[in-house]
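Hi C.,

You asked whether I'd gotten around to modeling the 275-residue construct. I have! Everything is below, sequence then structure, no commentary in between.
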Amino acid sequence: MDNRPKKDLAKFLSEDLGKGDITSNLLPRKKIKARIISRQDGIIAGVNYVKEIFLSKGCTVRIIKKDGNKARPNQTILEITGFAQSVLSCERTALNLLSRMSGIATKTKKLVEKINAVNPRVKLYATRKTAPGLRFFDKEAVKIGGGEKHRMSLDQMIMIKDNHIAVAGSLPRLIIKARKKYKKIEVEVENQEDALLAASTGVNIIMLDNFSPKEIINTVNRLKKSKLRKHVKLEASGGINEKNVGVYAKTGIDMISVGEITNAVTGIDFSLEIP
């Protein structure tokens, strides 16, 4: 495992421990066996990071359900052996991370299945609407659920949005400036005319922000008539959810980004049990 997630996991555990688990320290020093079980249906995500949390306190861990596996109620996900103080002091941090990541993966999987039923060529992307400090894990969970990560940080790709254009005063001028240093450019647009303008400048991706399915279809058709469609990828974003994602997948779009995957997470319920 890379140092980055290891450092983050250590920080998460330290946040919960404070100066130490004073309740668990009252217990006799003896080894115990425990297991993490699922309380509901879901897609498992994060077991390797949960394992690392327990390993950092000297426990041994056996993974029963791997990332991407389906879990049913009362199924064992991991088995842990270690001193009681170590196991119990890791319990909440491990369960919190497993719950959040599995919730994200489960939601992602549902959306991907709806998209694939209509057009498997369309890819689902996460956004940067992640919890501060948890982006790495949130995006990993999206990947486990069958989605794509998109940008992890602002330095990975040029993405020109409405506020950038408002400050610069001109979309073409901003694109010309970006082209001097960067090859891949995405532009967010709010209407069909700006989509055509962006496509004519040779950008790589155009995000159609808050377009209705009908507006997207009309934009795709106009780009085809202008012979610009083949040279650009189209991304739909804004107001897309489990109920309408299939409709958007039918519009001729290439990419769909959904913020609620990571900013409105419903965790999967897990429990640590000592037999």
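If it helps when you're writing up: The two ends are 30 Å apart (CA to CA).

Thanks,
B.
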